[in-house]
Amino acid sequence: MMNNKPNLFLVGSMKSGTTSLHNYLDLHPEIFMSKDPWKEPNYFVKELNRDKGIEWYLSLFQGVEHEKYVGESSTDYTKSPNYKDIHKEIYELSPNAKILYIMRDPIERAISQYWWEVQYSGEGRSMKK
Fold first, then answer.
1. Which among 5, 1, 4 has a CA at the least distance from the CA of 93?
2. Mean residue pLDDT across the chain
């Protein structure tokens, strides 16, 4: 088995296309992206899933075989100043990592997020994890 330590991180704001790009990257034979339900593991956010431990995080990449890039997509990595020092945490685990930052027209993104919030709350789901 090859090294299953991630070296590719897709970040950006919600509703900017991270899910689509995550899925497109996963189609490439040299790229392994984390699978649902952990497309966004948020491991490097101390307030979210960091307490699950490094073994849990690396287990998300168990399917790695020969891929050159091993990645995940967590939009919470860009929510500074709410979450600090994400870049330092990523660098500590993977100093040669590639970070792709996806952006979208801010007005279109805000409208898309508004309608997502309306649908999300209309389904009676809580925003808390």
1. 5
2. 89
